[in-house]
């Protein structure tokens, strides 16, 4: 009888299609589920006949082949027995099929039939119904642990086969589920001696506890039977594992105990069992038969009973009598089994069935922020648990939030290490979380890798604040400066509905990136709004402590006083009570009288020692020996561990954990402890080790990470074992080598490791190990850089470069310490850093274009040369930018000396000197010609960072966060100190006659000072927000002030009345300057733009785009012809002021650039900048080359249309600058060579013949003909055939140049090019068309409007008619082939949907449409414009599209400043990206040049034309 399992009605379409494929039943890929089910019913008879034939064929095959086919589910009907079967489709077939099918050719003799083939007749499969246990909610880090249980001596072959073959194959397949499978193989077993060690059996069972799956393998051996069970805790009765073990009668083997324990947990873990065929051992040589025979009759009965338990269990599938063969012995003399393919196949199938059952869909990894929140939640729970006493400090902290008499909204808790700062804040947080009227936000610095980054802190708290207060229309960003401002704005607005408490623990553990220690990211108390409160913890005397106490309003402080005796006793009693322990009062008094028992940390450690090592009869002497201090107690604990487990093992273990930044996974620590050419640490050593150090570890971190629960433990371990730098370097080298192997498992610098942590930690440990050679290597390796970005570690990579450059350039670093590498490599590392920091926003989106972007750099750059080698070796498709700017080095001098951020650097009016100021509170004077340091002004005058300066003839004015305005002579003598501001001063300007100074402050005022009288003249107080900028006009008549709200106020400098108010932005204004010709005022803003205000009428006329982050300053050249700006994006940009076009972009700083200014001499055109990298740089912007060559690679304004004429090798471009340009020998020249400029305002042009083009006029709204003579120079312009009405679009047929189609009054009109005013056809539709294009065959016309498109097709009889073929509404899921009237009936639908069509492109076989939501819709022309693909191509609207000549590629451009090359034949795979520095327009032309090379020309909104060639591609 043939049995076929047919698919059910709830089967997926994919499953039904696979079923039909198995029986070779033809079906349509477009058939619905119901149609496929009907097709199966219709072919039932055929399916049964196929099965009968198949069964008959199986009987004629060898037994091995038969079993192989059966197990690999080659029988079609077996695939649908369960939805979770791993053989439902070809892609899920086992990797062992081929091996199994080859066995009949490779039979080697042994158990089996006379031909040496495996005997499978005895195999019995005990299939069980496995229940779903919801493992998805229980696993950690997407990892499934599988416990492998068996007797040891007779199962070496099976274990090896699983570890070396099955589990690696499972892991390959598990990638499709985003899972990792880790086998727990206690292959060194528990020996007779080890089972007598206290707690070993329980430790083994606890390994089973953490596993989700158990694989049991049994032969004829029962395994070692311990005479007694040594319990881990003899006097603890509430431990479930211990209680279970106590219930097991004596006489059970270790294997039997493991199996029964796992089966008792069947409600939380799956089990699989495999029982070996007993006939196997008859073929084993006599010498080794004892290794496979049962130990005794009693053991034989025991193993049979155990097999019966497994077979009889309701949820454990069993493979009984699996075949194998004796194959010899291993190096240690252990007998081995082989030919285990059937055995391995069964394990593979059953584990995969479990995975399919538990994880039917790929497991969704936690988003980065969700994972981060999990770390903080679990840390909060750990710290808040077991918190006792300290009621007084809890009351004080609670009163800080609820008591209206609180002196400040910001509070800081401090105390000695171990006093309980973190626990106190955690307990308060948990308490207030229960109050519905309080929103508690918390951040525990140090609980995760990202938690120490101040940008991550701001982003996380801002997200929680937005969600918690249900704030709308808040645009989040990961830019630090924008986040700092946004976070401050949100705190200032406050909360009307509930109180908000922000808890920040461990400020002193912040990384000092973005000057985190200076606490500028945290608003001051007066800037915090209603119902907002902040509580922080910090160690006294740290940098962040000092800076926060420099504030105008010092935060309220809460000191954690030493514990009172009563509190000490309560904490000790409650801690011991957890372990069912109790001390007599006399002993308790001794314990709490210890010197450091005043700290909770000491009591916790001491109680842990008592629990682990103290015995009842020796408690008194044990307590007496407990040291008095925390450090000594930790040393004592470590000494005990050394005595128990060996000094070397404990030292390595503790040092590895201590030197890791954020802890180690168990698997990482085991690998680190493994010695070269030796097996891993055996379980009998590892389990006791892990248990012994448990008292020092942090628990329940949500990630199985081993890390010490307190930073003091780290410090003591480093001090004890690694007291000198050399010893630390040894351990750091081991850590670096370990993470290098993880990141590059192949050892070929391919960087194919799948552990993100290895890419985070490798650079850190290389720096700590002072391996400058290797850190320089990886930071110049484009493959490594690409993997960092693929793992979302772009910002981390930037920090790697900063740290490396800072270390390498440190004054203490000598040539001898630069091990194995030349100092010239420092320059290369800086070059790569400049490349990365400039391109990071592109590489974060598209990591695979890392080498491509480096290739786009000038040909003489280091990055370009490295990328060319990489791309040539891989032979990957790439874009060569032909007419790119070939300038790679603008920097001519770097000045170093400041010890912190440099805020401003300016030339003196005659250029002889340079003045600079810094966050290091110093002012320096440099020689303007040589760059040599001339002098440093006396320190101590400014008591906080110096924020700005201005030359005033031979004197200098400086301002700072200390609220001071100071006038110096150029020799460093203070002339006068002006006081009057109440908050930090950030802006300063000097009147042209040098008589007055104006300063702008965060106190919302600008003060005008008289230098002669040294008095305040007036205070300008019209702003309602902080001021950061002010400027005197060059004629001295006006003063401009700018605030955080984005408003500029113009004041009369005589009567100080407001002349005008200009709102330039909603973002903070950071700097302003008037041009020398008095025409313009430049305003630098956080919104990434420099805004230009026209002084004649005080109106904004331009917003200069280009920067991607906040513009910090912008200044005019002395002749007002150029403007230079600098930004947080670490670029310097120069614009010419006639058309406001960008003429130069320069990179070179490794930090945010704060100030940029021109040299006062117009002839030199130098630029001076300073940045957060502590350097001042002097640049030659090479404006002559850039302006005359690069700026002329296009038009002065946006390019509207491009056309390439291959016959004459000319490019035609139409622009908003009201010109048509002709570029000659286009494909022969690297740079564009202009042949002719025609002053004509048109929108588009098209060729009628080789000498005639036709255009649309922009202003006259008519069609115009231009005639060209044989020299290809435009000689005549005529308009006698002009059309009288508006024509937004037209197209000339590529096959019939006499036929022109154009849009008129929303209708499609056809005419003859000889006289376009005479229509031959008009197709009035009930909707308005806006654009039209012919297909290259001339057979179709596509017309678009906002809704979609209409296709007109020429009649086959050539009667001149073009009926509508189809019309599509792209944003209507039900629209596929509609009548033209569908646009009318669905108009209402479009009104509620903002998605509109924005671009289109014809291919030979495809038609593509782009929409405002960034999607590309691709239609098959031959299938009547059937939608074959729709994919998200860009973040914003598409504004240009083009197919390559043979439809191999599609190139798209968008407002997101990206142009992307897609592989059409490879399901529109992203091949490469050409990121523009500005917004792409709808101009992309694919063409083959005169050398028949595939090329692309595109243009951007600035007017630039980019000529690109595709390399390593074929069409």
Automatic annotation (TrEMBL):
GO molecular function: telomerase activity; telomerase RNA binding
Region (Disordered): 72-92
Domain Nephrocystin 3-like N-terminal: residue ranges: 406-524
SUPFAM superfamilies per record: P-loop containing nucleoside triphosphate hydrolases, Quinoprotein alcohol dehydrogenase-like, WD40 repeat-like
GO cellular component: telomerase holoenzyme complex
GO annotation (BP), single: telomere maintenance via recombination
Limits of the EML-like second beta-propeller domain: 985-1144
A Pfam cross-reference name: Beta-prop_EML_2
WD repeat start and end residues: 895-936, 978-1019, 1020-1061, 1104-1145, 1146-1180, 1192-1224, 1431-1472
SMART domains registered for this protein in UniProt: WD40
InterPro entries recorded: Beta-prop_EML-like_2nd, DUF4062, NPHP3-like_N, P-loop_NTPase, Quinoprotein_ADH-like_sf, Telomerase_Complex_Comp, WD40/YVTN_repeat-like_dom_sf, WD40_repeat_CS
Listed Gene3D superfamilies: 1.25.40.370, P-loop containing nucleotide triphosphate hydrolases, YVTN repeat-like/Quinoprotein amine dehydrogenase
Domain DUF4062: 146-230
Keywords associated with the record: Repeat, WD repeat
Feature: compositional bias, Polar residues: 74-92
Protein name: WD40 repeat-containing protein
Organism: Tieghemostelium lacteum (Slime mold)
């Amino acid at each position: 009888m043939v049995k076929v399992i047919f698919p059910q009605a709830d089967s997926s379409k994919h499953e039904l299609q696979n079923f039909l494929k198995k029986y070779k039943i033809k079906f349509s890929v477009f058939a619905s589920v119901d149609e496929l089910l009907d097709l199966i019913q219709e072919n039932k008879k055929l399916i049964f006949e196929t099965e009968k034939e198949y069964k008959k064929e199986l009987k004629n095959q060898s037994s091995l082949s038969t079993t192989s086919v059966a197990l690999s589910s080659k029988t079609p009907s077996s695939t649908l027995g369960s939805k979770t079967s791993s053989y439902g489709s070809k892609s899920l077939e086992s990797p062992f099929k081929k091996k199994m099918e080859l066995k009949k050719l490779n039979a080697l003799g042994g158990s089996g039939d006379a031909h040496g083939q495996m005997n499978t007749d005895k195999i019995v499969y005990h299939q069980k119904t496995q229940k779903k246990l919801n493992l998805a909610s229980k696993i950690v880090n997407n990892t499934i642990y599988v416990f492998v249980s068996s007797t040891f001596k007779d199962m070496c072959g099976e274990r090896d086969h699983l570890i070396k073959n099955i589990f690696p194959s499972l892991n390959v397949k598990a990638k499709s589920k985003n899972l990792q499978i880790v086998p727990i193989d206690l292959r060194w077993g528990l020996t007779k001696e080890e089972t007598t060690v206290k707690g070993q059996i329980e430790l083994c069972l606890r390994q089973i506890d953490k596993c989700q799956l158990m694989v049991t393998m049994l032969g004829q051996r029962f395994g070692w039977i311990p005479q007694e069970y040594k319990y881990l805790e003899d006097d603890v009765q509430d431990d479930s594992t211990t209680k279970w073990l106590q219930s097991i009668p004596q006489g059970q083997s270790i294997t039997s105990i493991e199996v029964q324990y796992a089966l008792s947990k069947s409600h939380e873990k799956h089990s699989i069992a495999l029982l070996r065929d007993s006939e196997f051992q008859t073929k084993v040589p006599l010498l080794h038969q004892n290794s496979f025979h049962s130990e005794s009759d009693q053991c034989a009965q025991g193993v049979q009973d155990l097999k019966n338990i497994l077979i009889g269990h309701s949820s454990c599938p069993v493979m009984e009598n699996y075949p194998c063969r004796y194959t010899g012995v291993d190096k240690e003399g252990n007998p081995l089994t082989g030919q285990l393919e059937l055995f391995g196949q069964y394990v593979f199938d059953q584990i995969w069935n479990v995975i399919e059952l538990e994880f039917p869909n790929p497991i969704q990894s936690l988003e980065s922020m969700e994972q981060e929140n999990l770390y903080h939640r679990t840390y909060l729970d750990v710290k808040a648990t077991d918190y006792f006493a300290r009621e007084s400090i809890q009351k004080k902290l609670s009163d800080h939030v609820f008591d209206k008499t609180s002196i400040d909204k910001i509070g800081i808790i401090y105390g000695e290490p171990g006093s309980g700062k973190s626990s106190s804040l955690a307990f308060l947080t948990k308490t207030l979380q229960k109050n519905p009227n309080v929103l508690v936000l918390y951040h525990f610095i140090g609980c995760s890798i990202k938690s120490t980054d101040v940008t991550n802190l701001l982003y996380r708290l801002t997200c929680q604040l937005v969600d918690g207060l249900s704030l709308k229309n808040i645009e989040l960003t990961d830019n630090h400066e924008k986040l700092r401002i946004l976070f401050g704005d949100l705190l200032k607005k406050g909360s009307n509905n509930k109180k908000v408490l922000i808890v920040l623990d461990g400020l002193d553990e912040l990384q000092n990136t973005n000057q985190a220690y200076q606490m500028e990211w945290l608003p001051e108390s007066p800037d915090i709004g209603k119902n907002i409160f902040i509580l922080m913890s910090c160690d006294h005397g740290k940098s962040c402590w000092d800076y926060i106490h420099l504030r105008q309003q010092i935060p309220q402080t809460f000191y954690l006083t030493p514990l009172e005796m009563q509190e000490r006793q309560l904490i000790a009693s409650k801690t011991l009570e957890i372990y069912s322990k109790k001390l007599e009062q006399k002993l308790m008094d001794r314990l709490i009288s210890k010197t450091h028992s005043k700290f909770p940390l000491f009591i916790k450690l001491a109680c842990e020692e008592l629990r682990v090592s103290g015995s009842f009869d020796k408690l008194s002497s044990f307590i007496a020996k407990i040291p008095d201090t925390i450090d000594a107690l930790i040393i004592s604990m470590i000494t005990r561990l050394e005595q128990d487990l060996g000094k070397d093992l404990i030292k390595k273990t503790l040092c590895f954990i201590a030197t890791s930044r954020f802890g180690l996974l168990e698997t990482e620590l085991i690998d680190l402890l493994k010695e070269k050419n030796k097996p891993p640490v055996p379980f009998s050593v590892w389990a006791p080790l892990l248990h012994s150090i448990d008292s020092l570890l942090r628990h329940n971190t949500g990630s199985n990470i081993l890390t010490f629960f307190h930073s003091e433990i780290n410090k003591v371990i480093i001090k004890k074992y690694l007291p000198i730098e050399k010893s630390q370097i040894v351990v750091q080298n081991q850590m670096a080598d370990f993470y290098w192997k993880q990141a590059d498992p192949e050892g070929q610098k391919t960087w194919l490791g799948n552990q993100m942590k290895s890419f985070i930690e490798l650079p850190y440990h290389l720096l700590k190990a002072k391996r400058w050679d290797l850190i320089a290597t990886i930071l110049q390796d484009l493959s490594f850089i690409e993997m960092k970005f693929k793992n979302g570690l772009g910002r981390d990579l930037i920090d790697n470069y900063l740290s490396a450059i800072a270390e390498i350039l440190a004054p203490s670093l000598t040539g001898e310490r630069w091990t194995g590498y030349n100092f010239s490599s420092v320059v290369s590392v800086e070059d790569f850093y400049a490349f990365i920091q400039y391109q990071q926003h592109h590489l974060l989106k598209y990591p695979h274009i890392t080498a491509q972007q480096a290739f786009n750099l000038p040909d003489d750059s280091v990055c370009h040369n490295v990328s060319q080698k990489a791309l040539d070796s891989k032979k990957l498709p790439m874009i060569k930018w032909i007419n790119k700017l070939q300038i790679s080095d603008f920097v001519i001098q770097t000045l170093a000396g400041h010890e912190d951020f440099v805020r401003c650097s300016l030339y003196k009016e005659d250029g002889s000197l340079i003045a600079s100021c810094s966050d290091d509170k110093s002012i320096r004077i440099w020689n303007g010609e040589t760059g040599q340091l001339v002098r440093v002004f006396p320190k101590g005058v400014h008591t906080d960072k110096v924020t700005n300066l201005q030359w005033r003839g031979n004197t200098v004015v400086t301002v700072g966060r200390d609220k001071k305005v100071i006038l110096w002579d150029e020799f460093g003598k203070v002339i006068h100190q002006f006081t009057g501001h109440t908050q930090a001063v950030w802006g300063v300007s000097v009147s042209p006659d040098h008589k007055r100074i104006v300063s702008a402050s965060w106190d919302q005022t600008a003060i005008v000072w008289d230098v002669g009288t040294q008095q305040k003249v007036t205070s300008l107080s019209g702003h309602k927000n902080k001021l950061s900028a002010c400027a005197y006009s060059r004629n001295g008549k006006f003063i401009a002030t700018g605030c955080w709200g984005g408003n500029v106020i113009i004041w009369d400098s005589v009567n100080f009345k407001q002349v005008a108010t200009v709102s330039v932005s909603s973002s903070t204004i950071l700097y302003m300057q008037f041009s020398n010709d008095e025409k313009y005022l430049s305003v630098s803003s956080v919104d990434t733009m420099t805004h230009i205000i026209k002084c004649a009428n005080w109106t904004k006329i331009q917003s200069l785009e280009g920067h991607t982050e906040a513009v910090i300053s912008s200044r005019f050249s002395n002749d007002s012809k150029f403007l230079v700006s600098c930004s947080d994006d670490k670029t310097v940009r120069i614009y010419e002021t006639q058309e406001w076009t960008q003429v130069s972009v320069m990179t070179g700083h490794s930090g945010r650039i704060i100030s940029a200014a021109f040299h006062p001499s117009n002839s030199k055109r130098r630029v001076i900048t300073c940045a957060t990298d502590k350097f001042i740089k002097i640049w030659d912007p090479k404006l002559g080359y850039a302006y005359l060559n690069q700026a002329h690679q296009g038009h002065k304004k946006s390019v509207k249309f491009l056309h390439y004429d291959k016959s004459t090798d000319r490019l035609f471009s139409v622009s908003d600058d009201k010109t048509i340009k002709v570029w000659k020998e286009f494909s022969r020249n690297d740079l564009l060579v202009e042949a002719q400029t025609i002053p004509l305002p048109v929108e588009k042009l098209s060729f009628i013949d080789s000498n005639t083009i036709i255009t649309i006029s922009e202003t006259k709204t008519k069609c115009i003909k231009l005639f060209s003579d044989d020299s290809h120079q435009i000689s005549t312009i005529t308009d006698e055939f002009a059309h009288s009405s508006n024509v937004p679009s037209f197209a000339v047929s590529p096959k019939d140049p006499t036929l022109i189609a154009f849009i008129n009054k929303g209708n499609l009109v056809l005419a003859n090019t000889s006289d376009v005013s005479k229509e031959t056809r008009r197709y009035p539709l009930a909707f308005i068309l806006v654009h039209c294009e012919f297909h290259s065959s001339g057979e179709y016309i596509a017309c678009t409007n906002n809704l979609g498109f209409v296709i007109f097709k020429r009649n086959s009889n050539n009667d001149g008619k073009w009926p509508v073929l189809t019309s599509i509404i792209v944003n209507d899921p039900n629209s596929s082939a509609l009548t033209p009237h569908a646009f009318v009936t669905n108009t209402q639908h479009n009104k509620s949907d903002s998605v509109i069509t924005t671009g289109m492109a014809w291919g030979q076989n495809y038609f593509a449409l782009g929409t405002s939501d960034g999607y590309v819709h691709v239609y098959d022309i031959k299938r009547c414009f059937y939608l074959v693909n729709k994919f998200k191509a860009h973040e914003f609207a598409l504004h240009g599209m083009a197919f390559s000549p043979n439809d191999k590629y599609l190139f798209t451009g968008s407002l997101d400043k990206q142009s992307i090359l897609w592989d059409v034949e490879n399901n529109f795979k992203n091949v490469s990206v050409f990121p523009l520095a500005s917004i792409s327009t709808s101009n992309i032309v694919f063409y083959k040049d005169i050398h028949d090379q595939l090329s692309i020309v595109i243009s951007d909104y600035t007017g630039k034309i980019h000529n690109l060639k595709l390399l390593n591609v074929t069409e």
